[in-house]
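Feature request disguised as a bug: please show the residue count (595) next to BatD family protein in the output. Example input:
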Amino acid sequence: MKSRNHILLFFACIPFLFGSTLHAQETAEEVSFKMILSKEKLGVNERLRVEFTMNKDGDNFVPPQFDGFNVAMGPSQSISSSWVNGKRSFSKTYSYILVPTARGRFTIKQATIEIEGETYKTLPKTIEVTAAVDKPSDQRTVDDVADESLHLVAEVSDASPFLNEAVTVVYKLYVGHSIRVTNYRSLDNPTYNNFWSQEIDVSKPKPKNTTYNGKPYLSVVLKKVVLYPQKSGKLDIEPLALEIYVDVPTNRRDFFGGRIYTQTTKTVSAGSRTLNVKVLPVAGKPANFGGAVGDFDFSVTTSKKELNASESLQARVEVSGKGNLKLFQLPEPELPSALEVYEPEFDEKVRTISTGMEGKVANNYTIVPNYRGKYPIPSISFSYFNPKTAKYVTLNSDEINIEVLEGPLGSEENTVAATNNRQVVVPTGKQFHFIKLSPNLNKIGAKYFFGSSKFFLMLFGPLLLIPIAVFSFKKREAIASDVVGNKIKQANRLARKYLSTAKKELGNKEAFYVALEKGLHNYLKAKLKIETSEFSKEKITNILNDKSVSSDDVEGFISLLKNCEMARYSPFSDVQMQHDYEKASEVISKLDKQL
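Example output, currently without the count:
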């Protein structure tokens, strides 16, 4: 009886034992780094395939010395990543094809790699090389030919740029003449953290004859990205990984003598690149420097210089040239207080080419004078950093004088406050007029106004308007007392203002997400008064958290920025664009109520 109870107790404990074991396996997966040989004994005329594989991504891979062998191919790198039932499976492999140089016993020593800050080593293995065999069993396979003939390279225009200086990354695929690439797809796209990024459209890749490692290849540009670093120091560019479908020739022939091809798939990676971003120099930095980096021209112009009071004119502050045109603020003019100035309308005509942004940005101010006089618009300055000369440049606009010809005269206080130069308002016309003393009076006649129908209409007409005025007043009072409703309406109007351009571009993926990202950034610029050079997702998250914005709204805002980045290299449907637009409008409304 006791033994039976012990057996039942043992089976009852089995789920707990295996459950704890499975839980430990799920929570902490051990790092695996090992060397795999295609064979441990081969003839001197055969080939040996050596693979170093790991289950987690690592850096600083150091291969062993292949004593007794020549490296025929390699290293070729392949990456495999998949999700099965919510669990990620990852594998990275470095492959070599070796040819023995003599008979004997040779040892392939340890290879090393750094994974998560720890150094891992493979176990050494011994290979026996015998006399030549009649029929070598290791002729080059289809995968060997594909590995030797495919190389993905990330070419960086400048590995040591200044902060906010344009850097172009070109991803080139080098293909050997013996194989044919039929198609490819992205497996892992870089996210470009700490960069403002813009992908350049490569609609029809054109192969060109070139050389790679001294051998003839065909090269094709698959992707171009322009980056503007938003932080100084060492910034990593994550690797691009592609799965490529390849036709590889075999030794077989068809009925007509044509070579038969076999299709295979290979995973290639461009490898990670590191930029050493230089901080902008402190020496000679102007006090009004706003983060502009490039080569620019600056101007302030007005649509007219003479007008009458209550008429309007347009003042335009414009910066043009090449550089980070979307990532700095324009200087604001200092206008006399007697001029009524409206919020500026932003105008942007910028395109991004392979060397960076070029075009112009401007603020258009609508100005309405109230009094006669002369009003000067003082000169304003704009400063930028030129990375080619590594110096700061300051440009000054010309002073503009506005003359108001006709209109009411301002008081002495208005005249003094109207200009910093204390220029006196110059009145025009006659100042003293002759007063007529002899009146020209006419008799009213027989028809008197008092007692007429017009008299009674004017007498009792206002009384009839009293109920209408009372009803209108109560209606306005009810609307004004609805604080929550007014806040919602104001927030919705604000969201429509910043997202109006994005709404017009619905259906056009690239233009929509560029306009959406710009709208989100402009909202933060207007609301939080921060420089665009500070626009990293981490900075935005910290600022919103400091402002006591709810975590859900912060995550919603950051997810929209991530969608804007991913849309540059991922397919997005019209339904997704409509969803992102509605989500952006909702997030801006919620943020505005909290800020």
